[in-house]
Amino acid sequence: MSVRIIALFIAALAGVTMALQGTMNSALGKKIGLLETVFVVNLVGLTLLSLMLFVFRLGSGSISALSQVPWYLYLGGILGVIITYGVICSIPKVGVAPATTAIILGQVFTAGLIDSLGLFGMNKLPFNWCRVAGTLLMAGGAWLILKE
Known about the structure:
With 148 residues, the chain is mainly alpha-helical. 76% of the residues lie in helices and 0% in strands.
């Protein structure tokens, strides 16, 4: 099996877990509140990652290289909070499939922009007519899914 196929499978698995996580987090949000849920979700994640890195030593990088990282790369933590909040807030109002569709559409448009500009050190990939057509087809599919 090629590395690309394995990477795509892992990405699809991440998509499955995102839909499950969003649903579970939204259910928790109804019980304890939005910000409280975002806090708990991130605290549980921090606990798991702390165990993986510091107890089981599963990391493959060097945490001591943190001081050499550009400041804006730390914004991922803030973005994670915004993502979690947005998912928890939107799923109860529109449903899992429409919210997930909107999330994926936003991801694809943003990813295309990042690829075409080569932002954050990514390889520059042209946003050619095939990618534009694929994105527009996805947007059309999203419109059909969101249509009542």
